């Protein structure tokens, strides 16, 4: 937007973006922790790639629904780099 308006765009070091994102996640998690009407299930991306069936099963248990765990697990093959 600044560039489009003809204004100088200050360089943004990648590390400051990472820091801002991390700070935001801490704030969101703190807010969620204080919401009695909300249940949250955190899913670790690396864990999904490592064992997609297990993580899909955990999501189903959290939702109290019988979902197609196999179909859920297969989705990781579409997004993940080949396993070595």
What keyword list fits this structure?
mainly alpha; 84 residues; 2 domains
> Number of DSSP strands?
0
Structural class call reads mainly alpha
Give the N-to-C terminal Cα separation.
42 Å
Strand content: under 5%
Mean pLDDT: 88
What is the H/E order?
Answer: HHHH
Shape: extended
The DSSP helix count reads: 4
Helix content: 55-70%
Any low-confidence stretches, pLDDT <50, length ≥5?
none
| Largest sheet data | none
Query: What Rg do the Cα atoms give?
Result: 19 Å
How many domains? The number is: 2
Verbal overview:
It is a single chain. α3 crosses α4 (69-79). With 84 residues, the chain is mostly helical. 4% of the residues are buried. The chain has helices at residues 14-33, 45-50, 52-63, 69-79. The model has no long low-confidence stretch (mean pLDDT 88). It has 4 helices and no strands. It has 2 domains: 12-38; 43-84, no CATH class.
SSE topology sketch:
Blueprint: H1 14-33, H2 45-50, H3 52-63, H4 69-79
């Amino acid at each position: 937007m600044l560039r489009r308006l003809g204004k100088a765009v200050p360089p943004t070091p990648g590390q400051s973006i990472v820091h801002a994102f991390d700070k935001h996640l801490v704030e969101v998690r703190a807010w969620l922790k204080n919401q009695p009407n909300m249940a949250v299930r955190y899913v670790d991306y690396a864990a999904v790639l490592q064992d997609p069936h297990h993580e899909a099963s955990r999501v189903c248990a959290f939702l109290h629904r019988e979902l197609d765990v196999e179909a859920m697990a297969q989705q990781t093959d579409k997004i993940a780099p080949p396993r070595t």
